[in-house]
Amino acid sequence: MNIGANIRRLRIEKELTQDKLAGMIGITPQAVSKWEREEGLPDITLLPAIAAALECSTDELLGVDDKPTQEELAAIMQTAADLILGDHSEESQKNTKVDAAVEYLRSQLEKYPKEWGLRINLANFIGMSLQLGGYDEDKLREQIEHYEYVRLKAPDMNKKLAGVIGLMRAYSDLGELEKAEEMAKEMPSGGLSYSDAAIFFLRGDKLREVLRRDIVSSVSAIRRSVAYLTDGINTGYGERITDHIGSLEERLELVELGTSAWELLKNLEGGAIWRAYAANQLRLGAGMLAEAGEFERALDYMERAVEYCRAEPDEKEGYFALSPNHTYGGDAEHIIPSREAKRLMIDAFEQAENYPEDPIHALTGHPRWKALKEKLAEM
Asked: Which of 10, 278, 338, 353 is most enclosed, with most CB atoms within 10 A?
Protein backbone atom coordinates (compact mmCIF):
# COMPACT_ATOMS: atom_id res chain seq x y z
CA MET A 1 0.00 0.00 0.00
CA ASN A 2 1.64 3.20 -1.24
CA ILE A 3 -0.64 5.99 0.00
CA GLY A 4 1.99 8.73 -0.19
CA ALA A 5 2.79 8.05 -3.85
CA ASN A 6 -0.93 7.94 -4.67
CA ILE A 7 -1.57 11.26 -2.92
CA ARG A 8 1.29 12.87 -4.83
CA ARG A 9 0.17 11.46 -8.20
CA LEU A 10 -3.47 12.47 -7.73
CA ARG A 11 -2.50 15.91 -6.42
CA ILE A 12 -0.34 16.59 -9.48
CA GLU A 13 -3.09 15.32 -11.82
CA LYS A 14 -5.48 17.81 -10.20
CA GLU A 15 -2.84 20.56 -10.51
CA LEU A 16 -2.94 21.20 -6.77
CA THR A 17 -0.02 22.45 -4.69
CA GLN A 18 0.74 20.89 -1.33
CA ASP A 19 -0.43 24.14 0.29
CA LYS A 20 -3.72 24.05 -1.61
CA LEU A 21 -4.42 20.42 -0.73
CA ALA A 22 -3.54 21.05 2.91
CA GLY A 23 -5.96 23.96 3.05
CA MET A 24 -8.75 21.86 1.54
CA ILE A 25 -8.50 19.18 4.24
CA GLY A 26 -7.51 21.41 7.19
CA ILE A 27 -3.95 20.30 7.86
CA THR A 28 -0.47 21.77 7.39
CA PRO A 29 1.50 21.61 4.11
CA GLN A 30 4.29 19.94 6.07
CA ALA A 31 1.97 17.01 6.81
CA VAL A 32 1.22 16.55 3.10
CA SER A 33 4.93 16.70 2.31
CA LYS A 34 5.63 14.10 4.99
CA TRP A 35 3.04 11.71 3.53
CA GLU A 36 4.36 12.11 0.01
CA ARG A 37 7.92 11.42 1.19
CA GLU A 38 6.52 8.27 2.84
CA GLU A 39 7.71 9.39 6.25
CA GLY A 40 4.28 8.96 7.75
CA LEU A 41 0.65 8.04 7.02
CA PRO A 42 -2.48 10.20 7.23
CA ASP A 43 -4.88 9.52 10.04
CA ILE A 44 -7.58 7.10 8.89
CA THR A 45 -10.25 9.67 9.74
CA LEU A 46 -8.76 12.02 7.12
CA LEU A 47 -9.02 9.56 4.25
CA PRO A 48 -12.56 10.56 3.15
CA ALA A 49 -11.60 14.26 3.14
CA ILE A 50 -8.38 13.57 1.20
CA ALA A 51 -10.29 11.41 -1.32
CA ALA A 52 -12.93 14.14 -1.75
CA ALA A 53 -10.28 16.82 -2.32
CA LEU A 54 -8.51 14.64 -4.90
CA GLU A 55 -11.82 13.54 -6.49
CA CYS A 56 -11.08 9.84 -6.12
CA SER A 57 -12.33 6.91 -4.09
CA THR A 58 -10.70 5.85 -0.84
CA ASP A 59 -9.92 2.54 -2.58
CA GLU A 60 -7.87 4.37 -5.20
CA LEU A 61 -6.19 6.44 -2.50
CA LEU A 62 -5.22 3.29 -0.60
CA GLY A 63 -4.02 1.57 -3.75
CA VAL A 64 -6.79 -1.02 -3.83
CA ASP A 65 -7.63 0.27 -7.32
CA ASP A 66 -4.06 0.99 -8.40
CA LYS A 67 -3.20 2.13 -11.89
CA PRO A 68 -0.66 0.14 -13.89
CA THR A 69 2.93 1.29 -13.86
CA GLN A 70 4.39 2.75 -17.05
CA GLU A 71 6.15 -0.57 -17.64
CA GLU A 72 2.91 -2.51 -17.18
CA LEU A 73 1.04 -0.15 -19.52
CA ALA A 74 3.77 -0.51 -22.15
CA ALA A 75 3.55 -4.30 -21.87
CA ILE A 76 -0.23 -4.16 -22.32
CA MET A 77 0.10 -2.05 -25.47
CA GLN A 78 2.82 -4.34 -26.84
CA THR A 79 0.53 -7.33 -26.38
CA ALA A 80 -2.26 -5.51 -28.23
CA ALA A 81 0.13 -4.65 -31.08
CA ASP A 82 1.34 -8.26 -31.24
CA LEU A 83 -2.24 -9.45 -31.64
CA ILE A 84 -2.41 -7.41 -34.85
CA LEU A 85 1.09 -7.78 -36.25
CA GLY A 86 2.73 -10.65 -34.44
CA ASP A 87 1.95 -13.57 -36.74
CA HIS A 88 2.18 -11.63 -40.05
CA SER A 89 -1.00 -13.34 -41.26
CA GLU A 90 -3.05 -12.38 -44.31
CA GLU A 91 -4.23 -8.77 -44.78
CA SER A 92 -7.79 -10.10 -45.13
CA GLN A 93 -7.66 -11.15 -41.47
CA LYS A 94 -6.60 -7.72 -40.24
CA ASN A 95 -10.08 -6.66 -39.14
CA THR A 96 -10.43 -9.82 -37.03
CA LYS A 97 -7.02 -9.21 -35.47
CA VAL A 98 -7.83 -5.59 -34.65
CA ASP A 99 -11.08 -6.67 -33.01
CA ALA A 100 -9.12 -9.21 -30.94
CA ALA A 101 -6.78 -6.44 -29.80
CA VAL A 102 -9.79 -4.27 -28.90
CA GLU A 103 -11.26 -7.09 -26.80
CA TYR A 104 -7.93 -7.55 -25.04
CA LEU A 105 -7.71 -3.85 -24.19
CA ARG A 106 -11.30 -3.90 -22.93
CA SER A 107 -10.35 -6.74 -20.54
CA GLN A 108 -7.39 -4.70 -19.28
CA LEU A 109 -9.61 -1.66 -18.78
CA GLU A 110 -11.80 -3.74 -16.48
CA LYS A 111 -8.72 -4.19 -14.28
CA TYR A 112 -7.66 -0.54 -14.54
CA PRO A 113 -10.83 1.51 -15.21
CA LYS A 114 -9.23 4.80 -14.15
CA GLU A 115 -6.19 4.54 -16.44
CA TRP A 116 -6.76 7.30 -19.00
CA GLY A 117 -3.74 6.18 -21.07
CA LEU A 118 -5.32 2.78 -21.54
CA ARG A 119 -8.62 4.41 -22.47
CA ILE A 120 -7.15 6.60 -25.19
CA ASN A 121 -5.31 3.65 -26.72
CA LEU A 122 -8.47 1.57 -26.64
CA ALA A 123 -10.39 4.40 -28.31
CA ASN A 124 -7.72 4.62 -31.02
CA PHE A 125 -7.83 0.87 -31.62
CA ILE A 126 -11.61 1.09 -31.91
CA GLY A 127 -10.96 3.76 -34.54
CA MET A 128 -8.83 1.25 -36.47
CA SER A 129 -11.68 -1.24 -36.25
CA LEU A 130 -14.10 1.35 -37.63
CA GLN A 131 -11.79 2.13 -40.54
CA LEU A 132 -11.62 -1.53 -41.49
CA GLY A 133 -15.18 -2.55 -40.72
CA GLY A 134 -17.18 0.57 -41.55
CA TYR A 135 -19.75 2.58 -39.62
CA ASP A 136 -20.81 1.15 -36.25
CA GLU A 137 -22.77 3.41 -33.90
CA ASP A 138 -22.09 1.27 -30.82
CA LYS A 139 -18.34 1.46 -31.37
CA LEU A 140 -18.52 5.22 -31.91
CA ARG A 141 -20.46 5.63 -28.66
CA GLU A 142 -17.82 3.59 -26.87
CA GLN A 143 -15.10 5.79 -28.38
CA ILE A 144 -16.91 8.86 -27.07
CA GLU A 145 -17.04 7.37 -23.56
CA HIS A 146 -13.27 6.82 -23.52
CA TYR A 147 -12.32 10.13 -25.12
CA GLU A 148 -14.61 11.97 -22.70
CA TYR A 149 -12.84 10.33 -19.77
CA VAL A 150 -9.48 11.41 -21.19
CA ARG A 151 -10.74 14.96 -21.74
CA LEU A 152 -11.79 15.21 -18.11
CA LYS A 153 -9.10 13.14 -16.34
CA ALA A 154 -5.88 13.41 -18.34
CA PRO A 155 -3.16 15.19 -16.33
CA ASP A 156 -1.98 17.73 -18.91
CA MET A 157 -3.24 19.82 -21.82
CA ASN A 158 -1.63 17.72 -24.54
CA LYS A 159 -3.46 14.63 -23.35
CA LYS A 160 -6.73 16.53 -22.95
CA LEU A 161 -6.27 17.80 -26.50
CA ALA A 162 -6.14 14.21 -27.77
CA GLY A 163 -9.45 13.57 -26.03
CA VAL A 164 -11.09 16.68 -27.49
CA ILE A 165 -9.95 15.88 -31.04
CA GLY A 166 -11.13 12.29 -30.65
CA LEU A 167 -14.54 13.53 -29.49
CA MET A 168 -14.85 15.92 -32.43
CA ARG A 169 -14.07 13.11 -34.87
CA ALA A 170 -16.46 10.63 -33.24
CA TYR A 171 -19.34 13.12 -33.03
CA SER A 172 -18.70 14.11 -36.63
CA ASP A 173 -18.84 10.47 -37.76
CA LEU A 174 -22.15 10.11 -35.91
CA GLY A 175 -23.50 13.18 -37.69
CA GLU A 176 -23.87 15.05 -34.39
CA LEU A 177 -22.23 18.19 -35.72
CA GLU A 178 -23.43 20.55 -32.98
CA LYS A 179 -21.68 18.41 -30.36
CA ALA A 180 -18.54 18.34 -32.50
CA GLU A 181 -18.63 22.14 -32.62
CA GLU A 182 -19.05 22.31 -28.83
CA MET A 183 -15.85 20.27 -28.48
CA ALA A 184 -14.08 22.70 -30.82
CA LYS A 185 -15.02 25.54 -28.46
CA GLU A 186 -13.30 23.67 -25.62
CA MET A 187 -10.08 23.30 -27.58
CA PRO A 188 -7.12 23.80 -25.20
CA SER A 189 -4.60 26.52 -25.97
CA GLY A 190 -2.18 25.29 -28.60
CA GLY A 191 -4.74 22.93 -30.14
CA LEU A 192 -6.21 22.90 -33.62
CA SER A 193 -7.04 26.15 -35.36
CA TYR A 194 -10.70 26.87 -36.07
CA SER A 195 -10.29 25.98 -39.74
CA ASP A 196 -8.59 22.68 -38.88
CA ALA A 197 -11.38 21.84 -36.44
CA ALA A 198 -14.12 23.01 -38.82
CA ILE A 199 -13.89 19.85 -40.94
CA PHE A 200 -15.53 18.01 -38.04
CA PHE A 201 -18.65 20.14 -37.73
CA LEU A 202 -19.19 22.25 -40.86
CA ARG A 203 -20.47 21.03 -44.20
CA GLY A 204 -21.14 22.42 -47.66
CA ASP A 205 -20.72 26.11 -48.37
CA LYS A 206 -19.93 27.01 -44.75
CA LEU A 207 -16.97 24.63 -44.64
CA ARG A 208 -15.83 25.78 -48.07
CA GLU A 209 -15.82 29.41 -46.98
CA VAL A 210 -13.85 28.70 -43.77
CA LEU A 211 -11.22 26.70 -45.64
CA ARG A 212 -11.07 29.29 -48.39
CA ARG A 213 -10.45 32.05 -45.84
CA ASP A 214 -7.70 29.93 -44.32
CA ILE A 215 -6.04 29.49 -47.72
CA VAL A 216 -6.29 33.21 -48.40
CA SER A 217 -4.80 34.04 -45.01
CA SER A 218 -1.93 31.61 -45.48
CA VAL A 219 -1.12 32.83 -48.96
CA SER A 220 -1.34 36.43 -47.80
CA ALA A 221 1.30 35.63 -45.20
CA ILE A 222 3.47 34.06 -47.91
CA ARG A 223 2.98 37.12 -50.11
CA ARG A 224 3.93 39.47 -47.30
CA SER A 225 7.07 37.54 -46.39
CA VAL A 226 8.12 37.14 -50.01
CA ALA A 227 7.53 40.86 -50.57
CA TYR A 228 9.81 41.74 -47.66
CA LEU A 229 12.50 39.45 -48.99
CA THR A 230 12.28 40.35 -52.68
CA ASP A 231 11.11 43.95 -52.98
CA GLY A 232 14.26 45.42 -51.49
CA ILE A 233 12.32 47.22 -48.75
CA ASN A 234 14.40 49.95 -47.12
CA THR A 235 15.10 49.43 -43.42
CA GLY A 236 15.28 53.16 -42.74
CA TYR A 237 19.02 53.04 -42.16
CA GLY A 238 20.18 53.31 -45.77
CA GLU A 239 20.25 49.58 -46.42
CA ARG A 240 17.84 47.09 -47.96
CA ILE A 241 16.57 43.85 -46.48
CA THR A 242 17.68 42.10 -49.67
CA ASP A 243 21.28 42.96 -48.78
CA HIS A 244 21.09 40.43 -45.94
CA ILE A 245 19.10 37.45 -47.21
CA GLY A 246 21.55 35.44 -49.23
CA SER A 247 22.51 34.94 -52.84
CA LEU A 248 20.65 35.90 -55.99
CA GLU A 249 19.56 32.31 -56.54
CA GLU A 250 18.17 32.09 -53.01
CA ARG A 251 16.13 35.25 -53.60
CA LEU A 252 14.89 33.86 -56.93
CA GLU A 253 13.67 30.77 -55.10
CA LEU A 254 11.49 33.09 -53.01
CA VAL A 255 10.19 34.75 -56.16
CA GLU A 256 9.16 31.34 -57.49
CA LEU A 257 7.50 30.54 -54.16
CA GLY A 258 5.46 33.74 -54.32
CA THR A 259 4.53 33.11 -57.95
CA SER A 260 3.38 29.58 -57.13
CA ALA A 261 1.25 30.88 -54.28
CA TRP A 262 -0.64 33.26 -56.58
CA GLU A 263 -0.84 30.60 -59.29
CA LEU A 264 -2.51 28.32 -56.76
CA LEU A 265 -5.20 30.87 -56.03
CA LYS A 266 -5.75 32.65 -59.32
CA ASN A 267 -8.71 30.46 -60.28
CA LEU A 268 -10.54 30.76 -56.95
CA GLU A 269 -13.82 32.59 -57.22
CA GLY A 270 -13.57 36.28 -56.39
CA GLY A 271 -9.84 37.01 -56.48
CA ALA A 272 -8.95 38.51 -59.84
CA ILE A 273 -5.96 40.39 -58.43
CA TRP A 274 -4.04 37.15 -57.91
CA ARG A 275 -2.99 36.89 -61.55
CA ALA A 276 -1.63 40.43 -61.39
CA TYR A 277 0.26 39.53 -58.21
CA ALA A 278 1.86 36.54 -59.95
CA ALA A 279 2.95 38.73 -62.87
CA ASN A 280 4.35 41.30 -60.45
CA GLN A 281 6.28 38.62 -58.58
CA LEU A 282 8.02 37.62 -61.79
CA ARG A 283 8.73 41.27 -62.58
CA LEU A 284 10.55 41.50 -59.24
CA GLY A 285 12.64 38.50 -60.20
CA ALA A 286 13.50 40.18 -63.50
CA GLY A 287 14.68 43.24 -61.57
CA MET A 288 17.00 41.14 -59.39
CA LEU A 289 18.52 39.48 -62.43
CA ALA A 290 18.89 42.78 -64.28
CA GLU A 291 20.73 44.31 -61.33
CA ALA A 292 23.09 41.32 -61.43
CA GLY A 293 23.71 41.85 -65.15
CA GLU A 294 21.91 38.65 -66.20
CA PHE A 295 19.79 40.32 -68.85
CA GLU A 296 18.68 37.25 -70.81
CA ARG A 297 17.38 35.53 -67.70
CA ALA A 298 15.74 38.78 -66.63
CA LEU A 299 13.92 38.97 -69.97
CA ASP A 300 12.83 35.33 -69.55
CA TYR A 301 11.13 36.38 -66.31
CA MET A 302 9.49 39.34 -68.02
CA GLU A 303 8.19 37.04 -70.74
CA ARG A 304 6.63 34.77 -68.14
CA ALA A 305 5.05 37.82 -66.50
CA VAL A 306 3.57 38.95 -69.82
CA GLU A 307 1.98 35.50 -70.30
CA TYR A 308 -0.22 36.16 -67.26
CA CYS A 309 -1.88 38.88 -69.32
CA ARG A 310 -3.20 36.40 -71.86
CA ALA A 311 -6.98 35.97 -71.62
CA GLU A 312 -8.23 32.47 -70.83
CA PRO A 313 -11.32 30.88 -72.41
CA ASP A 314 -14.56 31.85 -70.65
CA GLU A 315 -12.71 34.21 -68.34
CA LYS A 316 -15.04 35.75 -65.77
CA GLU A 317 -15.12 38.93 -63.77
CA GLY A 318 -13.71 38.81 -60.29
CA TYR A 319 -13.02 41.01 -57.31
CA PHE A 320 -9.96 43.21 -57.19
CA ALA A 321 -9.07 42.02 -53.69
CA LEU A 322 -8.55 38.73 -51.90
CA SER A 323 -12.24 38.02 -51.36
CA PRO A 324 -15.69 39.52 -51.94
CA ASN A 325 -15.66 40.62 -48.28
CA HIS A 326 -12.30 42.38 -48.57
CA THR A 327 -12.33 44.69 -51.56
CA TYR A 328 -10.72 47.99 -52.25
CA GLY A 329 -14.08 49.49 -53.11
CA GLY A 330 -14.74 52.12 -55.75
CA ASP A 331 -14.86 51.32 -59.43
CA ALA A 332 -12.39 48.43 -59.30
CA GLU A 333 -14.47 45.82 -57.52
CA HIS A 334 -15.28 43.89 -60.70
CA ILE A 335 -12.45 43.33 -63.16
CA ILE A 336 -11.24 40.81 -65.72
CA PRO A 337 -8.15 39.03 -64.32
CA SER A 338 -6.05 39.13 -67.51
CA ARG A 339 -6.90 42.81 -68.04
CA GLU A 340 -5.78 43.70 -64.52
CA ALA A 341 -2.51 41.84 -65.06
CA LYS A 342 -2.07 43.61 -68.40
CA ARG A 343 -2.68 47.02 -66.80
CA LEU A 344 -0.02 46.31 -64.20
CA MET A 345 2.50 45.11 -66.78
CA ILE A 346 1.94 48.11 -69.06
CA ASP A 347 2.67 50.32 -66.06
CA ALA A 348 5.81 48.28 -65.35
CA PHE A 349 7.08 48.70 -68.92
CA GLU A 350 6.40 52.43 -68.88
CA GLN A 351 8.05 52.92 -65.49
CA ALA A 352 11.16 51.01 -66.59
CA GLU A 353 11.50 53.21 -69.67
CA ASN A 354 10.89 56.52 -67.88
CA TYR A 355 12.83 55.99 -64.65
CA PRO A 356 16.51 55.01 -64.92
CA GLU A 357 16.57 54.00 -61.26
CA ASP A 358 14.06 51.19 -61.96
CA PRO A 359 15.88 47.82 -61.64
CA ILE A 360 14.69 46.67 -65.08
CA HIS A 361 15.59 49.93 -66.86
CA ALA A 362 18.73 48.25 -68.24
CA LEU A 363 16.52 45.87 -70.24
CA THR A 364 14.75 48.58 -72.21
CA GLY A 365 17.40 48.76 -74.93
CA HIS A 366 17.40 45.05 -75.60
CA PRO A 367 15.68 43.82 -78.82
CA ARG A 368 13.58 41.37 -76.82
CA TRP A 369 12.17 44.24 -74.77
CA LYS A 370 10.47 45.78 -77.80
CA ALA A 371 9.12 42.38 -78.89
CA LEU A 372 7.66 41.75 -75.41
CA LYS A 373 6.08 45.18 -75.34
CA GLU A 374 4.42 44.57 -78.70
CA LYS A 375 3.24 41.16 -77.57
CA LEU A 376 1.68 42.71 -74.49
CA ALA A 377 -0.10 45.39 -76.54
CA GLU A 378 -1.67 42.73 -78.78
CA MET A 379 -3.12 40.72 -75.88
From this structure: 278
